[in-house]
Amino acid sequence: MSLSEEMITEAQPYLTANEKHPFVQGIINGTLSPQQLRYYDEQDIAFEYNEVAVINALINYGTTTDQVQLFHKRLTLQLNMLRDWLKREPDSMPHDWKSLKWTPIQPINQLYRQHMAATIQTHSVLQILPSFAAGEWLYIELGKYLKHQTRVDQEPFRSFLTLGNQDFLGPTGFIQQFFEIIDQEAEKASIREQQQAKATFLKSCLLEWYFWDASYKHITWDNWQSAALTGQTGPLL
Ligand SMILES: Cc1ncc(CN)c(N)n1
User: Fold this and answer.
1) If we measure between CA atoms, which residue out of 34, 50, 70 comes closest to residue 167?
2) Can you give the residue ranges of the Thiaminase-2/PQQC domain (predicted)?
3) Ligand 1 within 6 A of 139 CB?
């Protein structure tokens, strides 16, 4: 089994857990509150800007021209998506560049962003790419799962998790190419480096679940602080 096949196989329980998460179920049923949607939206835009830094690192440390061109293409797509995202916010959810810069990065988002950013200092595509590819893979798989559900047909729920762009899918789509790059890089790496790359992939899948959870429960530094300072030791998070 190739390294990417191992990653995908071992990530299946995480995928199932993500599918079952009440936030994902809330997308299907259209039952998320404006507050939950707003939290996700703000945090996710900030998360996607962090992905820009990770993709930039992949461009820097790519080991072939083909890799660098692919990462460059993915970066352009990311910036276009972000530009369109900023444009389509309703009045109730302003997302101009300035307000975005002041959006506090909440605890789980910070943990996930730092988990990804920490791979940059390895200067290794094998270590950096799985941190990013995991979220991409999971969103594509969740999109496939949602396609088979009877989901509400109104915005903003309708467009959620629809990475329908053909650039992402199929044998020449980004995710397939990312897995091929992981396997090419793995051939040059030690077993230990391969295991580290897999652990990074799986940790991103786990943090995806916590990202939904934080949005569902509105986890913020403020409510963490008040829980700590009032001595609440309730359920995990
Ligand atoms: C948390 C998260 N993970 C992944 C993606 C898809 N790049 C995203 N937008 N947000």
Assistant:
1) 70
2) 20-217
3) yes
